[in-house]
Inverse folding.
């Protein structure tokens, strides 16, 4: 099924248009699958939103924003770029070892990759950019992009850059309603030449893609109907990226497909198509598609409270139970889960996030085998939890432990051979027998894990 769709997708890539019945070079399919392999296998990543906006952390002057993305504070408070810069640059003082803390936490949590904001909409670049003084090197004498990439690699993780296409700082960048981009009050496009900004965007992307060794992901953000794809000279930009990083994986936010709305609003049950010229995976934002997204690679990105950037007022933390079950839910539908943290001004990760990540990590230490390298459920969504699958076995993630000790799994026609608890190091067999609606697995009285216990079921 997946193969067929990928073939179709590649046909689009090769010809620019899908022609029914035409065949594609199998090499191209193999190449794409090879490039996506680690990403599909990883299933779980850590997202980090951190920049100058982490300093005000939801408060500007006498105004406070208690919820929602306060990485948008410049726009929400209506602050012109020069004022924003003058106010925040002097206060920007990251602690020495913040990058190691992020990377270590990502590894402990069980994340296989880390995607961080190399530049958010505010325009501040974490890398040492020759094209601007609005970068970390000029602000604090450090190349923070390098620090983060090196620390992440040192933990054995893949690393990605979220790079904002929108830029509220560059004096030539278009903003404004007519361009579809939320704008800073009082700023107009008059006298601006957006092509100068697009050159700058390409230039900075080239810097980050060529100066730091392998970069595994580029996570573009974002396009609207009025400004997308070729407004950013997207094909050329992607070519530039691939020239330096042939193995890179990227999201599709340089482009906004006409039938699909903004990832936050899109109705994912209607499906989604990706133009492979413009990226590899789509990005349901703050949402888990009810039945996954057929035929395409997808990644749900989600905050732990309600903001991407650090918000000192936001205490609406999701519980560890919700986060673990979200991860399982996403993976059971064939997607990846990119879970966000918003470090404080000096780069320290908020305690509430650390606590949750550590608990997720403990669960992953025992149950990671039911997540990494697994695929979508072939048995739908059972009442008691979720399934993930691997060749020859499937994993029953039990959220609600049955009171009578009997769990019904799969279908009566599934040739089940064996079942055991993933948490049981000795892999003692659980009793199984065929029932009318599936196989009955005799469970121990007590669930090994209150959030999700995993039963491994082997079949022929
Ligand atoms: C949106 C927001 C942004 C956040 C991103 C994460 O594009 O503008 O603040 O970085 O989503 O998906």
């Amino acid at each position: 099924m997946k193969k067929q769709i990928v073939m179709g997708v590649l046909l689009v890539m090769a010809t620019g248009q899908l022609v029914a019945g035409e065949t594609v070079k199998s090499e191209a399919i193999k190449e794409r699958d090879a490039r996506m392999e680690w990403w599909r296998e990883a299933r779980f990543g850590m997202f980090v939103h951190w920049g100058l906006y982490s300093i005000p952390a939801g408060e500007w002057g006498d105004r406070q924003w208690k919820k929602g993305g306060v990485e948008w504070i410049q726009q929400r408070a209506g602050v012109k770029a020069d004022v924003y810069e003058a106010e925040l640059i002097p206060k920007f003082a990251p602690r020495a070892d913040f990058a190691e803390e992020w990377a270590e936490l990502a590894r402990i949590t069980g994340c296989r990759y880390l995607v961080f904001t190399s530049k958010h909409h505010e325009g501040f670049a974490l890398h040492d950019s020759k094209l601007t003084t609005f970068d970390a090197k000029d602000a604090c004498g450090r190349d923070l992009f390098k620090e983060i990439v090196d620390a992440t690699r040192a933990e054995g993780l893949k690393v990605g850059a979220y790079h904002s296409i929108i830029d509220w700082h560059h004096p030539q960048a278009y903003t404004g309603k007519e361009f579809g981009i939320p704008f800073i009050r009082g700023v107009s496009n008059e006298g601006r030449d957006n092509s100068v900004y697009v050159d700058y965007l390409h230039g900075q992307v080239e810097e980050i893609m060529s100066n730091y060794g392998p970069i595994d992901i580029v996570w573009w953000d974002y396009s609207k109907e009025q400004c997308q794809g070729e407004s950013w000279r997207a094909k050329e930009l992607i070519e530039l990226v691939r020239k330096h990083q042939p193995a890179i994986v990227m999201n599709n936010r340089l482009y906004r497909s006409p039938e699909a709305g903004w990832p936050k609003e899109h109705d994912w049950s209607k499906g989604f198509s990706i133009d492979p010229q413009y990226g590899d995976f789509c990005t349901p934002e703050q949402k888990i598609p009810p039945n996954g997204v057929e035929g395409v690679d997808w990644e749900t990105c989600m905050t732990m409270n309600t903001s991407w950037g650090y918000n000192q007022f936001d205490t609406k933390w999701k519980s560890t139970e919700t986060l673990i079950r979200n991860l399982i839910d996403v993976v059971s539908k064939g997607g990846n889960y990119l879970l966000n943290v918003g470090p404080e001004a000096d780069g320290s990760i908020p305690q509430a996030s650390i606590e949750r990540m550590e608990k997720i990590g403990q669960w992953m230490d025992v149950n990671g085998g039911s997540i990494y390298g697994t695929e979508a459920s072939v048995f739908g969504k059972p009442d008691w939890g979720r399934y993930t699958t691997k060749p020859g076995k499937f994993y029953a993630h039990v959220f609600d432990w049955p009171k009578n000790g009997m769990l019904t799994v799969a279908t009566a026609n599934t040739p089940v051979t064996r079942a055991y608890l993933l948490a049981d190091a000795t892999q003692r067999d659980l009793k199984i027998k065929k029932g009318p609606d599936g196989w009955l697995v005799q469970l121990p009285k007590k669930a090994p894990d209150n959030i999700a216990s995993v039963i491994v079921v082997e079949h022929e």
